[in-house]
Every structure is written in C-alpha cells, then in structure tokens.
C-alpha cells in the first residue's frame, strides 16, 4: 500500500503528527485504540471518516517505523 496516499504530516495539525489524509485523526490514536483492545469495526464505527483500509495502513505504518528503528545505522 502507498501510505502517502492515506497518511500525511501537516505542520500545525496535531502538532505535526502523522494523520490520515483529509482528517485530524492521528495514526497514533488508531494504534492506541487497537492496543486498548478495539477492533477494526469498532474504530470505523467511532470514526466514520475512516475505513478498514485506514486502520490497516496505521498498522503498516507502525511496522515500517519499527523496521527503521530496529535497523542499525
């Protein structure tokens, strides 16, 4: 998935945290909801601007970030 079509960082929006395009919903918020036990359907129900694809993009974003942090410089 091309994450740049789903996730963006805008100065002045949520302190520059990565958000879903066209929203103020931060990727980290969705990851926190998943970590707290919410499932994809519950997140989408609470945030109708999002789809299951957005939630999967958040997981992919976190995995890519972890790979970068785990790779020695």
TrEMBL record:
<dbReference type="InterPro" id="IPR007367">
    <property type="entry name" value="DUF433"/>
</dbReference>
<protein>
    <recommendedName>
        <fullName>DUF433 domain-containing protein</fullName>
    </recommendedName>
</protein>
<dbReference type="InterPro" id="IPR009057">
    <property type="entry name" value="Homeodomain-like_sf"/>
</dbReference>
<dbReference type="InterPro" id="IPR036388">
    <property type="entry name" value="WH-like_DNA-bd_sf"/>
</dbReference>
<dbReference type="Pfam" id="PF04255">
    <property type="entry name" value="DUF433"/>
</dbReference>
């Amino acid at each position: 998935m091309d994450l740049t079509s789903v996730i963006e960082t805008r100065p002045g929006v949520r302190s520059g945290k990565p958000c879903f395009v066209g929203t103020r919903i931060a990727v980290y918020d969705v990851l926190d909801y998943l970590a707290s036990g919410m499932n994809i359907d519950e997140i989408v129900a609470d945030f109708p601007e999002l789809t299951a694809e957005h939630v999967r993009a958040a997981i992919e974003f976190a995995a890519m970030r972890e790979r970068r942090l785990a790779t020695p410089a």
